[in-house]
């Protein structure tokens, strides 16, 4: 008996351990899908609101940092091909209707740019174990009534014992499932991507090609930065990006000298292709860093570079709110950080920070030679001071940019840190 | 009497255990089967059923002349050669052979050409061992 119980426990444990995580671009009850996009020169977050029933409504909201243009939206079900259109702007959500769970594509257009965001609409079907709970209780209830009748008409004890015992077994089954339910595998929701149970996690690394259109952009002119992603094993386009810190990819572009900095969220224009429009005011070499995550895998950082030609031409729009840090804005403790030891960076925010990319603040640190890029988040300090903990890995000079969002948009605070030998 | 009840209670536990194992087996069997997958592109819509040696492509929309399938297992970094499906009936194509090197989650790219144009539909399917 004990051995059987042990076997059962082992079976439950194996099932629990091998339960696979959920896929990435999912909209389901209690889980909005938030995706940051840099489109038509604006930094915005698209929110595909959680849905509880299908067929049913699906709402798409836009949050601008600080503002966003009206977006032309097109929702297509990749299961049945149904297409619906809508427009959304900050404060004016788009209302769609979904007829089926499963894969969908949201095409977002503004200012001549277009992004296609694949996602899945899921509806939970319940755990599937309820039938055992209700079945057990039903059998017990039925037999208790039967037991009463048996007791009334039959004076001999044996049938009553059997009935009571089977009723007890039914209650035991129900009780066991009630107790074990949190650990029992849940059925995949309707519309989920088919995935094998108990498969190993992790996918091959991504190879990237970073190009610009035109190939040699001129200073002051708008150009497109294109990142093409290829599977490191098969060479196929990588189109299984998970939403990582509320974006399919974070692209950080800095000039070699650290005076230019952009943290943008490129648009998926084709499978495995991400694009964003930029403008650089000075000629020279620019370094690109793409932070992303494949489904079932960890985060990856892909690097690249491009060159901007021509004479220096100051741009009319210097980008999302870059300002020189005023004295006293940034405090590093210890004042002379030691390599490999955590340092605290405090930034006095101008205004009340509101969440951006799921966090109150972001600190991006680049080694002067460009060989290292770190990205750490604010730790949830109340008030308008942002506090980061960061360990500068080796001695040297670092360019750092603290970023936060307020009602006025995204503020970037640049500063440099010297880490002595 | 009490002893009998206790034994029956334990029996109930065992029964619950066995039932749970049966249900788990049922759930696992359900999730690892090769269910048909329906995908709609802009030109074509297909319903595909795949097992180790056969890929069955039925056109729900669009008339295709040729259908080729390419399978990739992203988790393992496996890629199989592109296979051309033969036309079994109008709107029904079948690819046969050693199409998958192992069971599991495979990404299938179905490339269709015909009067509506060329289109590749990509989706994930489960292939049983």
UniProtKB/TrEMBL annotation, chain A:
It comes from the Bacteria. InterPro entries: Filamin/ABP280_repeat-like. This is Secreted protein. It comes from Streptosporangium sandarakinum. Residues 1-24 form the signal peptide. Keywords: Membrane, Signal, Transmembrane, Transmembrane helix. The chain crosses the membrane at residues 131-153, 160-180.
From TrEMBL, chain B:
It comes from the Bacteria. It comes from Streptosporangium sandarakinum. This is YtkA-like domain-containing protein.
